[in-house]
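Students often ask why we bother predicting the structure of a whole assembly rather than each chain alone. The short answer is interfaces. A chain on its own may look different once its partners are present, and contacts between molecules only exist in the joint model. In this exercise we take two input lines together and write out one structure for the complete complex. Read the inputs first and try to guess which parts will touch.
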Amino acid sequence: EAGVTQSPTHLIKTRGQQATLRCSPISGHTSVYWYQQALGLGLQFLLWYDEGEERNRGNFPPRFSGRQFPNYSSELNVNALELEDSALYLCASSPGTQKGNIQYFGAGTRLSVL
Amino acid sequence: GIQVEQSPPDLILQEGANSTLRCNFSDSVNNLQWFHQNPWGQLINLFYIPSGTKQNGRLSATTVATERYSLLYISSSQTTDSGVYFCAVEYDMRFGAGTRLTVKP
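Now the answer. The structure tokens for the assembled complex follow.
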């Protein structure tokens, strides 16, 4: 069974551009989570989607947004990129809080903003 | 929000030694997981353990929910155990800062 898949693996953008990151959850999982791991700042919760709805949002500006599609895949959009957005972005999926919330992580997308 | 603190921040061991990593959290939690992040950034699930004790090979974990802490035990450490160990709590995964473990041959 395929795990959580993220694309692209690496993404290079310039300041002011937009970035789109994609995540496909494990089959049968309805919840998708996004995290940012910036150097020296640890893992920070970004967004949580479940059954197509945004359930919670971390302390990030509105230019970080996303959505979850009917097939439960998700994308994260970062607008007006800033240098400090350079980080590893990790996606995780889980069966949903009603079925146990063990989260499984993808390999991440490394975003570099120049 | 819930605060998560991990200790020690860094740990250097000789291969074969045992170690205990600690995770303290500031409020009661419904969800707690331990992860190992390998050098390539991949987070590997170790335990889902909101309470009680679990064991998986050389690794075991104990969470005492009433006292708001969890412990991860690594016995007979191997060089492949090197990396960063994180605990995370709640459904939106508030992560601790991690313990960086280095196991020397």
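Check your guess against this: Residues 33 and 48 of chain B are 4 Å apart (CA to CA).
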